[in-house]
Amino acid sequence: ASTKIKELTLPARLKTIYEIISWADGDAQVKSIVDVFYSNKTLAAIHVEAGNEFFASIDGVLYERNSKGVADTLLFCPPGKTGNFEVPIEVTKVENGAFNNTKLSKITFAEYPKDHENYGKPLLEVGNGAMSEFTESYDLQYCVISSASKLRSIHFPSHLKKLGVYSFSNMSATMNFNMDAHLESIEGGAFIYCMFSELNLPAVDYIGYGAFSQTELTSITFHPNSKFTEMPDYLFYSCYYLAEIEIPASVEAIGMEAFSECSELTSVVFQEGSRLRTIGSSAFAGTSITDFVM
């Protein structure tokens, strides 16, 4: 039930506070931590008593410890917490629902020095799962960040590894990436319904179904070191404001309705040395293409 609790202290004896549940039509297994605090919009700090072997609190944010006692999983940032927040360098996983209804204005991830062995090493996973086919069946509270009206920017580090299924939704915050990162994957629906207009991505090896579907993107830039070979089904479906796109040379296939209903899309340019072999049905249906360069 909804409460007006502003601070909460978890006891040292606490061993578990969530269940593992299936989400997004079974494409992701997530920890249900957000359900515990979902109605507590005023909660600004979660504390953990000293001696707890499983959980920790840093600056009022709840973390889970690994087998070595390191607080490496960010479980939940209370929705009443405001201002700027930096995710500690030790964190290698940000759970689904971690920033649900957040009132934060800026989220950054602590960065390793350039001469550190972990700089640019894929370690950090934001969200979970991999989409088997495009679907819009998901609950907003399990997105890593959703409905964050006060959030203005997110800054991702060089050690970013993966953005999971439906990581972000219904938010306008600017996404800033360290261009020295090399992501293994951006999973299906990762940015669905987001309202930012520009996206400059670091190198990425795989992009899932509908990753940018129904966003307000006007432009997107892919890093030249990207290795993804497919622009899958519904990748930019109904991105009404997308006017032009440059397809990386690595792309061999464009999926079904990948750019369908991108009504402002007028220019598609394929990079020199393009390996494109197949274009799926209705891939460019409902666009305004006047320039198609291969």
Write the layout of secondary structure elements.
Elements: E1 7-10, E2 20-23, E3 28-31, H1 33-37, E4 45-48, E5 55-58, E6 61-65, E7 71-76, E8 82-87, E9 93-94, E10 103-109, E11 124-126, E12 145-146, E13 153-156, E14 160-163, E15 168-169, E16 174-177, E17 182-183, E18 185-186, E19 198-200, E20 203-204, E21 219-221, E22 230-231, E23 244-247, E24 253-254, E25 267-270, E26 278-279, E27 291-293
Parallel strand pairs: 1-4, 7-9, 8-10, 9-11, 10-13, 11-14, 12-15, 13-16, 14-18, 17-20, 19-21, 22-24, 23-25, 24-26, 25-27
Antiparallel strand pairs: 2-3, 5-6, 6-7
How would you describe this structure in keywords?
4-stranded parallel β-sheet, 7-stranded mixed β-sheet, 294 residues, mainly beta
Report on this model:
This protein is 2% helix and 32% strand. It is mainly beta. The strands form nine sheets. The chain has a seven-stranded mixed beta sheet with strand order 5-6-7-9-11-14-18, with no helix packed on it. The protein has a four-stranded parallel beta sheet with strand order 8-10-13-16, with no helix packed on it. A three-stranded parallel beta sheet has the order 22-24-26, with no helix packed on it. The longest helix is centred in the first third of the chain and has 5 residues, at 33-37.
Please sum up the structure shown.
This protein has about 290 residues and is mainly β.
Indicate the multimeric state: single chain
| Cα end-to-end separation | 58 Å
Quickly give the structural class.
Answer: mainly beta
H/E series: EEEHEEEEEEEEEEEEEEEEEEEEEEEE
| Total beta strand runs | 27
**Gyration radius from CA atoms, angstroms:** 20 Å
Helical content stands at under 10%
- Secondary structure tally, helices: 1
Mean pLDDT: 93
What fraction strand?
25-35%
Which residue ranges are poorly predicted, with pLDDT under 50 across at least 5 consecutive positions? none
Biggest sheet, spatial arrangement of strands: 5-6-7-9-11-14-18
Biggest sheet record: 7 strands, mixed
Described by the principal axes of the CA atoms, the overall outline is elongated
